[in-house]
Design brief:
By secondary structure, the chain is an alpha/beta fold. It has helices spanning about 20-30, 50-55, 70-85, 100-105, 125-135, 170-200, and strands at about 10-15, 35-45, 60-65, 90, 110-115, 140-145, 160-165. The chain has one domain: Formyl transferase, N-terminal domain (Rossmann fold), CATH 3.40.50. The radius of gyration is 17 Å and the shape is globular. The structure holds 5-O-phosphono-beta-D-ribofuranosylamine.
């Protein structure tokens, strides 16, 4: 594992699934593109492949399942776990829960969403954009990373966004692949912007 410096920007990455965006973040930290360190990866799902990616990279992992806890109780537990590690920023990278104020009032949080700002919040954004393109109501797809100041769904001040144009022969599969490849770039650019912002002013 690369040696870590105490002044690196500390990240907690929250994941629920495959973790390809987590991988992009880990790689960008490792190759120096980001002056950051993933200090912890937290999953609400014990079988998330993202946990394997983190372990392979030597990043500490935590599995914190909601079980039958009420949402706000769970979110407080999560917030405490992140506070115990001590990070500058929480990145939601394929995290499949809506975080309540019991979490977002305690940490600076950013979320990655596979759609343009204000379009297709919630699940199925890629599929909805693609079917809109097929029926002529959508002209391009996109991805964005935004701050999560409250309980809004995929909504908040936009940090970085990029359009993903459709191509004439696109299938849902080829379009999805391009969206994901774009996300991997955009999430790293967005974190880099937040690091630059934090150097100028406290984040909270
Ligand atoms: C990404 O499309 C992300 O925008 C969405 O869930 C997907 C996670 O992919 N919220 P991965 O787990 O990072 O591969």
């Amino acid at each position: 594992m690369t040696s870590r410096s105490a002044d690196l920007f500390g990240l907690a990455v929250l994941v629920s699934g495959n973790g390809s965006n987590l991988q992009a973040i880990i790689d960008a930290c490792a190759d120096g593109t980001l002056g950051a360190e993933v200090k912890v990866v937290i999953s609400n799902r014990p079988d998330a492949y993202a946990l394997t990616r983190a372990a392979d990279a030597g990043v500490p992992t935590l599995v914190i399942e909601q079980g039958d806890q009420p949402r706000r109780v769970y979110d407080s537990e999560l917030a405490r776990a992140v506070a115990t590690v001590g990070v500058d920023l929480v990145v939601l990278a394929g995290w499949d829960r809506l975080l309540s104020e019991a979490f977002v009032t305690h940490h600076t949080v950013v979320n990655l969403h596979p759609a343009k700002p204000g379009v297709f919040p919630g699940l199925g954004a890629i599929e909805k954009a693609f079917s809109g393109w097929l029926d002529g109501t959508v002209t391009s797809g996109g991805v964005m990373v935004h701050f999560v100041p409250d309980e809004g769904v995929d909504d908040g001040p936009v940090i970085e966004t990029e359009e993903v144009p459709f191509e004439p022969d696109d299938t849902l599969e080829t379009f999805t692949e391009r969206v994901h490849a774009t996300e991997h770039r955009v999430v790293v650019k967005a974190i880099d912007k937040v690091i630059a912002l934090a150097a100028r002013q406290p984040l909270r």
